[in-house]
Amino acid sequence: MIVRLARAGDAADIVRIYNEGIEDAVATFETDARSAEQMAELLREKGEKYPTVVVEREGRIVAWAGAGTYRARRAYAGIAEHSVYVERASRGLGAGRAALEALIEEYERRGFWKLCSRIFSENTASIRLHERVGFRVVGTYCRHGKLHGQWRDVVIVEKLLGEAAAG
Ligand SMILES: CC(C)(COP(=O)(O)OP(=O)(O)OC[C@H]1O[C@@H](n2cnc3c(N)ncnc32)[C@H](O)[C@@H]1OP(=O)(O)O)[C@@H](O)C(=O)NCCC(=O)NCCS
Fold first, then answer.
1. If one looks up domain 2-165 in CATH, what number appears?
2. Is CB count within 10 Å lower at the N or C end of the chain?
3. 0.85 exceeded by the pTM?
4. Any idea where the domains of the chain sit in the sequence?
5. pLDDT tens figures, 26-39
6. Measured between alpha carbons, how far is 152 from 28 in angstroms, rounded to an integer?
7. Is the beta carbon of 103 within 6 A of some atom in ligand 1?
8. Ligand 1 centre from 72 Cα, in Å?
């Protein structure tokens, strides 16, 4: 596996994997597939500050992890909210872990002090992955939103980085 920072030309692969996640309805409240153009624009907006990492296997992108602003308030500038997606055919083979570990490293290097995310409470694969790479389960938001008409609970996870992690 090769893990590297995403480039503009990766937008189509990233969106292909993201749209599988949307279709599976296990990972996001999002219901509309995105286009490669929308993803390219998002990557441009995030720029150097909020990098995305991709995992390649045999020359193909099979997973990615990315992050964005947590809240606009200045006090939260060092927190990023992240996502991680693996293509259906490559799940359970370590690509999610590789992507998330690389994301942690990149954001720590850039001076962020926390990564956090919200995971559907049924998504045991994602909760397990996050625990394996050092995330703490903070708690559960009950009935946080509806997906396809059904209430969903989400588990909040966080990982302290850099100086914050040092205590
Ligand atoms: C959740 C997801 C990112 C995990 O990535 P992955 O590459 O499949 O997971 P990995 O192979 O790196 O495994 C990481 C850990 O999770 C565990 N795991 C993976 N799939 C699992 C499953 N279906 N059930 C329980 N544990 C699972 C692995 O056993 C491993 O733990 P271990 O080291 O204790 O064995 C991936 O399955 C995925 O993309 N799912 C759809 C999108 C999604 O849910 N994204 C997360 C949004 S919050």
1. 3.40.630.30
2. C
3. yes
4. 2-165
5. 999 999 999 999 99
6. 10
7. no
8. 30
